[in-house]
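chitinase structure dump, as promised
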Amino acid sequence: MDRFRPVLAVLTAALLAVPGITALSSAARAADADLARNGGFETGLDGWTCPAGTTVNTPVHSGGSALRATPAGSDNAQCAQRVTVRPDSQYTLSGYVRGSYVYLGASGTGTTDVSTWTQSAPDWQRLTTTFRTGPATSSVTIYTHGWYGTGAYYADDLTLTGPGVDAGQPPAAPTGLRTGTVTSTSVALSWTAVPGATGYAVYRDGVKTQTAGGTSATVTGLTAATAYSFQVTATNDTGESARSATVTATTATGSGGGDGGSSGLPAHALVGYLHASFANGSGYTRLADVPDSWDVIDLAFGEPTSVTSGDIRFDRCPVTECPTVESDADFKAAIKAKQAAGKKVLISIGGANGQVQLTTTAARDTFVSSVSKIIDEYGLDGLDIDFEGHSLSLNTGDTDFRNPTTPVVVNLISALKTLKARYGARFVLTMAPETFFVQMGYQYYGTGKWGGQDPRCGAYLPVIHALRDDLTLLHVQDYNSGPIMGLDNQYHSMGGADFHTAMTDMLLTGFPVAGDPDNVFPPLRPDQVAIGMPASVNAGNGYVAPAEVTKSLDCLTKRTGCGTYTPHGTWPALRGLMTWSVNWDRFAGWEFQRMFDGYFG
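structure tokens r here:
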């Protein structure tokens, strides 16, 4: 079409010179509008989210600037922009790219997401694709990205052509507001999407309490056995709609799911792993010698007889490896003594060497029976899931964390729900995933819509979500981690207060999975979250000094002393800290324990 534009310009000028012919209508101009902001990157990265990108002066396709982005490791250097569009409308996305394996696409279209790519473009090459928005779609995300380990790519003159959205009008009020899961401290809400809305606000008893990017939200921090009213509004760049109709919900009494006070944990808890089945450089620590500061003691580890058997065994450290190990009778007596003092003793399943894949329902059932046998034999309070490595991954096409289809995920969820139902409300269930399996889900989820991503990325999210009303504590391992993007769309690296603050804020605020504003992982309650970190420099990569831990706690619970990252809320009810491990803390002179005692008292 480019070669016809001079002719069209001449014809248009001629028509305008004829009496009675006026300028094109605003509707016609809107149909040809370019909705992409700063598509030529002439004002830097304004309007774009490009963590691995920058602008350069050469090479450029036109103008004075272009995008240069460099994939590295598990990052494909995506550069994305969210654009407001009209529902049920046709759009054309195009742009010029250089490099190898460069992609241009659109997601969140409400119909079929599209992408196009070039394997090799030594000079500028035009990519173009079209799509139609769904009947309720008010925004889409356009993006360009490279491929893992293929070097830098360039992009310039990106356009999204199609009907614009009339300015000057806020969206209509949402309809279809309804309640979902109700616990003693939270109420889940959902509603129908509003055309033209770019976000939503949630009102509780007439007061705005939070915002949401998609059509669902979970209101947390509520009081048990209390009635609440809720409304939502829709927002865009122009303003806020009228409020929706009101729905009401009464929170549970606290005897059902979630903690609700039923777990027996103190308001602020210290969680530690005790090396019960092996020895290392930290030395063996008898359970009876664990100080009273530790509120939850995770016995590490129960491991499977084979990766897919589901048959979990807990073998205590042999005397040949741990000369000071206590007898079984003394070990069981120590468990009872800890419980009498108000402590919780759990069996932790997995660890770095204990890969567990429940690929079949038979493995699921064996998991339930074998874990139950361990809990019953030692009289334990519950279970910690510490699946690492390749225990959890998502099959191709499993893209919705709310409705998982991968057997290892579905079977684990079923097994944990069965155990929770078997032992009742006081059963303590905790999880200790790595950041790659949780917070990395903000950028990537499973193999992705186009394949090629690590299938383990974000794989814990469906498990956490399905068990959120049964989950006592989530303490993500903020260590042995690569850089992770926070909600500020900046990468954060372990080793300082900001990393803990950013990672914890994601759990307490919620986040769109794989950047999809219509697929939001809801926040957890603050009493369900503890921060995981190494006890000493010997325990793992990512150790931070006590002063840095204090900074992060101050920022999250008081919103004071924050560094470069500012959290989205203040959570004085944050449950506490988890550490690897009790043994390593003893080796380091109990520094971690003293810091916790000094902060929480």
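DSSP finds ten helices and 27 strands in the chain.
lmk if u need the other ones
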